[in-house]
Amino acid sequence: MKKHVPIPAEWRADFLLYQYALSRRLGFLLSCVVLVLLPVFVTLEATLWSHQNGEQVWKHLGLRLPTAVLATTFLVLYLNKAKGCWAYPLLLALNLSVVGMMATMFTLHYSQQDEHFLYINQGLTMAIIAMATATVYGARDLAIVYGLPLLSVVTFLAASGYALPINVTPLVYIPLAMGIGVVIATMLHKEHRRSFIASQQLEHNALTDALTGLPNRRAMQAQLQAEWSRAERNGQCFAVLMADLDRFKAVNDQHGHEVGDEVLITLASRFNANLRGGDRVARWGGEEFLLLIPGGNQQSAMAVAEKIRVAVAEPDFATSAGNLVITLSLGVALYRHAERIDDVISRADKALYRAKQEGRNRAVLAKG
């Protein structure tokens, strides 16, 4: 089998949430199956095997009670959309209770070696394999789900002095089922990881500019909306900077679009190297970029704009066509209370237009 594909550090928090959601889904399905099947098995035992032994029936009902309680608890929490990370430990407990229930009945009937024992042995084998499909962390979960009941059974039988039965064939099925269960759980765990990574990559590609690696317009719109909501709620301010490369069309016309792409890639790296930790930049379209400065005031926003302008202008851009002098014009707009995001962007865009008119390679603050 192939090794696990590592989860990138920036996705680990999302992967944890994904595991919580997976625990909820698996636990819901397992709880439904358990609450449907338990009455069926109890009825079969009462009518086919234990109709003459009321004490045996009540004993089996008692063994199944913890599993029924756990399944019911899971369904109640699930249907009430309870918050928190309760789903995984409860799912693990439910898995353990199912295998533990069957292992306990196996132990109680071990000495009889009758038809009922064979029935219990088959049930234990099926439970071992079935629980492998309801694991979140694969073989790591099964170390608990299989390990604790197995250790308890072996300890009890050894302490009781029971010898191996004459026909040991039914006992072979149990370790074989465990091996199959480990394979199933491992494969499912790898598939869960692969599905998560594929989903994250699709989302990342949908929100990332393929050329520069910067967030795209769609991603920035979500960040702008979040910052606007925070500013409205807390009475804070933020700044929007519209940046546009000067005479970029001439670069494409004289040197070709491949060189133009090289300029855009270098520009993106200079943005990332010179922005503060909380600042955001996205490719807005073509050679136009939008920068979001959370909590910015006029002084800090203009300082960031000037820093970016200087970082772009110096040193020259190294390209396959040689070193090129590239400059940037910026328009800066500060958010005003109750103003729409589109209006802030529009003012920043008008300020950028003024920067172009006034000679380019400068940052201009929006009026008003």
Could you explain how this protein is built, in words?
The protein has 368 residues and is an alpha+beta fold. The protein has 2 domains: 9-206, no CATH class; 217-365, Alpha-Beta Plaits (2-Layer Sandwich). It has 12 helices and 7 strands. It has helices spanning 12-49, 54-79, 87-108, 115-132, 139-145, 147-160, 169-206, 217-234, 248-255, 257-274, 298-313, 341-357; strands at 238-245, 280-285, 288-294, 317-319, 322-324, 328-334, 363-365. Strands 2-3-1-6-7 form a 5-stranded mixed β-sheet, with helices on both faces. The chain has a two-stranded antiparallel sheet with strand order 4-5. The mean pLDDT is 89. Its cofactor is Mg(2+). It comes from Halovibrio variabilis.
Brief synopsis:
By secondary structure, the protein is of the alpha+beta class. The protein folds into two domains: 9-206, no CATH class; 217-365, Reverse transcriptase/Diguanylate cyclase domain (Alpha-Beta Plaits, 2-Layer Sandwich), CATH 3.30.70.270. The chain has twelve helices and seven strands.
Keywords:
elongated, alpha+beta, 368 residues, 2 domains, Alpha-Beta Plaits, 5-stranded mixed sheet, single chain, 12 helices
How is this fold's topology laid out?
Layout: H1 12-49, H2 54-79, H3 87-108, H4 115-132, H5 139-145, H6 147-160, H7 169-206, H8 217-234, E1 238-245, H9 248-255, H10 257-274, E2 280-285, E3 288-294, H11 298-313, E4 317-319, E5 322-324, E6 328-334, H12 341-357, E7 363-365
Parallel strand pairs: 6-7
Antiparallel strand pairs: 1-3, 1-6, 2-3, 4-5
Helix pairs in contact: 1-2, 1-3, 2-3, 3-4, 3-6, 4-7, 9-10, 10-11
EC number: 2.7.7.65
Catalytic activity: 2 GTP = 3',3'-c-di-GMP + 2 diphosphate
Transmembrane segments: 26-49, 61-79, 86-110, 116-137, 144-164, 170-188
